[in-house]
Design goal:
The protein is built from 6 helices and no strands. With 167 residues, it is an all-alpha fold.
Length: 167
């Protein structure tokens, strides 16, 4: 069980980010990047179970830990910078800033978001190289099932009696 924490990080990397249409056409774990810009929740042991079901070898686990060590500080710094920039943008929006100031801050948020996504993508590519083609396919299938489950739960929440469907 000691490998679950480091492995959970890679699930987070693989599940976080933006749409990956180009990846879907190239055997890369399709559409793995699904979280909002830089805002990720820690994954529980239930999520890490998907990697456990992939029968990772001790070497694969060791290699993933090395990638985690390599990327975690950079990802943390980039997420913090993005969150600060987004907060500054929110403050400008509710304040008396000029449209030009707001546009400039929006451009900064976009730049930081792209930088974070690029780092996530690079780490994902390194993780991808560790998995066998069979493990990639199996992991992708598990992610599709999870996404479908999340969509179902979201629809149920929206359709719950008493839930507000208005913006």
């Amino acid at each position: 069980m000691s490998f679950l924490r480091p492995v959970s990080f890679f699930v987070a990397i693989l599940v976080a980010g933006s749409s990956s249409t180009a990846l879907a056409q190239s055997e890369v774990l399709p559409n793995l990047l699904i979280a909002q810009a830089g805002v990720r929740q820690p994954l529980g042991t239930g999520q890490a179970g998907g990697l456990r079901n992939l029968n990772l070898t001790p070497q694969q686990i060791k290699d993933m830990q090395a990638i985690r060590t390599k990327y975690q500080p950079r990802l943390t710094q980039q997420r913090q910078a993005l969150q600060q920039a987004m907060q500054a943008l929110r403050q400008l929006m509710v304040g008396n800033a000029s449209p030009d100031q707001i546009r400039k801050q929006h451009a900064e948020v976009s730049r930081l978001r792209q930088q974070l996504e690029s780092t996530r993508f690079e780490s994902m590519l390194e993780v991808r190289d560790i998995l066998t083609p069979e493990q990639r396919l199996q992991f992708d299938q598990q992610l599709q099932q999870r996404r479908e489950g999340m969509k179902t739960r979201l629809r149920q929440r929206i359709n719950q009696p008493g839930a507000s469907n208005s913006p």
